[in-house]
């Protein structure tokens, strides 16, 4: 019998919108606790792959994370399996503090509203997440007045306290300052020590600096895969990027 692949395993993924093939039979494997960058020109199908994994769009093919089959499951079922994503625009509760945002996320993960429970101190998983996302000092700051970068980190923190084991991040550094980008790169590599991370990325400088392994998509298919140096040296990749 086949050994179970512990990470994310996608086979022959297809997504068709009204006859238009957005993803045309993609295979993708990301080992557990590794980090993979998905790059490619606009319209390559990167976000659609994330949408398919999280159940937002209909797809064919198979999507597995460890022993869990994600294909055919609904958005909330997939979320409950510990698969979390961020969007290009952070979706945090602006009026609530950093701590309250994390509390709500932790509560949603456990199916209870811990926020409503009166208790002293910060729960351990929340304290850990605050430390990882470097927002410990902003504990009581309303999320609405955080910088753009800090909001993205808070959103990632919300996935951490939900105990997401697979995180899919859609252009996490878009709109960030240079320092915020570097901090995010370090944050992602730290998270990838204990979770599997897929990063859709547009920013080539960021990718060069922080990516370990990269999958390049083009027009809904996989164009190239390997280390940053390997994909950058691939004539097929050069052609697509120069031809833009
Ligand atoms: P990327 O993230 O690589 O820029 P997308 O996955 O967003 O690319 O889009 C891939 C292709 O699918 C694009 O041509 C886009 O216009 C198309 N597409 C994405 N979502 C939809 C949709 N809901 N309906 C129709 N076409 C879509």
From TrEMBL:
Q: Which Gene3D superfamilies has this protein been placed in?
A: P-loop containing nucleotide triphosphate hydrolases
Q: Where is the ABC transporter domain?
A: 8-244
Record key words, sorted: ATP-binding, Nucleotide-binding, Transport
Q: Which GO terms describe its molecular function?
A: ATP binding
Pfam families for this protein: ABC_tran (PF00005), BCA_ABC_TP_C (PF12399)
InterPro entries per the UniProt record, alphabetical: ABC_AA/LPS_Transport (IPR051120), ABC_transporter-like_ATP-bd (IPR003439), ABC_transptr_urea_ATP-bd_UrtD (IPR017781), BCA_ABC_TP_C (IPR032823), P-loop_NTPase (IPR027417)
* Top-level taxon: Bacteria
| SUPFAM superfamilies per the UniProt record, alphabetical | P-loop containing nucleoside triphosphate hydrolases
UniProt-recorded name of the protein: Urea ABC transporter ATP-binding protein UrtD
